[in-house]
Amino acid sequence: MYFLKEQLKLFECNKVVNWHEHVRDNNRGQLDEEQCDFLVEAAKRAYMDVLVVSRPISGGSPTPEMFRAKNNVVAAAMKRYPQIIKGMAYVNPGYMKESLYEIDRCIKELGMTGIKLYNQYFISDPVVRPVIEKCIELDIPILSHAGKLNTVPNPQPTISDGTHFAEAARNYPEAVFVYGHIGGGGDWQWSLKAIADYPNVYADISGSVYDEGIIEQAVSYLGAGRLLFATDGSFSQGIGKLLGANISQEDKITILNNPAFARYLERGL
Amino acid sequence: MIYDVNTYIGHWPFRKIRNNTPEELVKKMDEVGISVACVSSVHSVFYKDAMEGNTELAEETRPYKDRLLPFAIINPLYPAWKKDFLTCIEKMNMKGLELYPYYHRYDLNCPEAVELVRMAGDLGIPVHLPCAIVNVRQRHWMDTNENLNIGQVERLMELCPDTDIIITNGPSEQIAAKLKKATQGRKGKVFYDFARVEVFPVRGQKTNFQALVEAAGVDRIVFGSCLPFQYAEPQMVRLNQMGLKDEDMEKILYKNLQTLLTEKK
């Protein structure tokens, strides 16, 4: 038995770039090769051509030693699958000097594609400004963990929502921001409306939430040209929500391999 | 053929939802290949008197009785709940009971809820317990901040051992593992859907779906789409990736649920 046979040709017949995935480390702090292998195997089964991965630290305020180690895990994954895996450098902007050095190291020496920020600071926080300016200098995108969480109490008090991205985009119209996982939980309508008028803010469609209408509204507010295909651990949802969306085939193809981001993938070692 | 355990009709107060009339729902089911769906009324969740929503549901689904199987939503803390439940089952021919303790604000182990669930068991009526309608992290500020309390479900299973229970729209592999011990020795069966269960090996060799099969068995897994709140296509992607033999796939697609809804008690 096979379902969506015709629809899945969209993935089979077009280049698919997954802009939000993660590799993990083992208990020795090295790349979990088995997880990496299975992730790549899953990607192949889903006709994904490129996986852009990172290894952020979700709690506390990670030290430079900690984020450097995580970026080394990403670099190991890139080395293991150079044709498929691209890397995003994770930094904690609270360590300004070390973060700038690490971005240089990851981009220039390790061949990474952009940076990944987590929830240590709002993306509009002045602490993040030197990092944004470094990314402008290097012409690399800034993917940030994001969500307008309505849970009480909010377990992530400094997670960025659409309004924070809008403020950062106002201050830095030449930067390229990616709102991480529009389906990652949280009020996606809030964030889509907040970033709609800022053309340098993109969004990836990943996350476990696949509310009917989420992709249609994202296209309505941002246009397909500001959306990136991604999964963030939720392959079925990421694929299914794009297949289920009532948008044009042309828009779906744009989202699967957004030409605005092609230049970032052409770099690297 | 697909039997879907979890669909709704009606207006959702916190976001515009499309395809939420019986006619539109059936059209959507046709698009994605769902033959028959259990359906409840969102209005029964939000009206003070849930029975008003049940009455609407019975009337509106009547033209689609071969496609839509109505499930009654009962608030056991509201007056006349026993009479309402019996009316839904015996006069309106509803096929199941659906409970929302996190919206109607009661403990699943309160005497009234236990009595209701026992009544369902005595009548051979399955009890559907959705973990949530929408993801808790995105809820409206006037919406509930709660999900289904699995600890209460565990105790309910002990208190009502004859009742068949269906748990949907949650981390089924984790819930099934937690409830595995409580499930054993019951006469009533416990079923799970896979609406929030990953089938790709993104985190390692064993997928969440394989963990669900281990914990519950293929005889206890049913299809649930949560239409029209969610796209149905992720479920179809999952079906493609399950890697089950045809016989087991048929159980998940329709046989398990069909049997549950039709077998003589």
Secondary structure layout:
The complex is a heterodimer of chains A (269) and B (265).
Chain A: H1 9-12, E1 17-22, H2 33-45, E2 50-54, H3 64-80, E3 85-90, H4 96-109, E4 114-117, H5 129-138, E5 142-144, H6 162-171, E6 177-179, H7 188-195, E7 201-204, H8 214-222, E8 227-228, H9 235-244, H10 249-256, H11 262-266
Parallel strand pairs in A: 1-2, 2-3, 3-4, 4-5, 5-6, 6-7, 7-8
Helix pairs in contact in A: 3-4, 4-5, 6-7, 7-8
Chain B: E1 3-9, H1 22-32, E2 36-41, H2 42-46, H3 50-61, E3 68-73, H4 81-91, E4 96-98, H5 101-104, H6 111-123, E5 127-130, H7 150-159, E6 165-168, H8 172-183, E7 190-192, H9 208-216, H10 233-241, H11 246-262
Parallel strand pairs in B: 1-2, 2-3, 3-4, 4-5, 5-6, 6-7
Helix pairs in contact in B: 7-8, 8-9
Uncertain segments of chain B are none
CATH topology of chain B: TIM Barrel
Describe the largest sheet of chain A.
8 strands, parallel
Strand order of the largest sheet of chain B: 1-2-3-4-5-6-7
What class, by secondary structure content of chain A? Answer: alpha/beta
The CATH superfamily title of chain B:
Metal-dependent hydrolases
Number of strands of chain A: 8
CATH architecture of chain A: Alpha-Beta Barrel
Q: Helix content range of the residues of chain B, please? A: 40-55%
CATH topology of chain A: TIM Barrel
Helical residue percent band of chain A: 40-55%
The CATH homologous superfamily of chain A = Metal-dependent hydrolases
- Based on CA atoms alone, the radius of gyration of chain A comes out at 17 Å
Low-confidence stretches of chain A: none
Radius of gyration of chain B, in angstroms, nearest whole number:
17 Å
Along the chain, the helix and strand elements of chain B come as EHEHHEHEHHEHEHEHHH
> Count of DSSP helices of chain A?
11
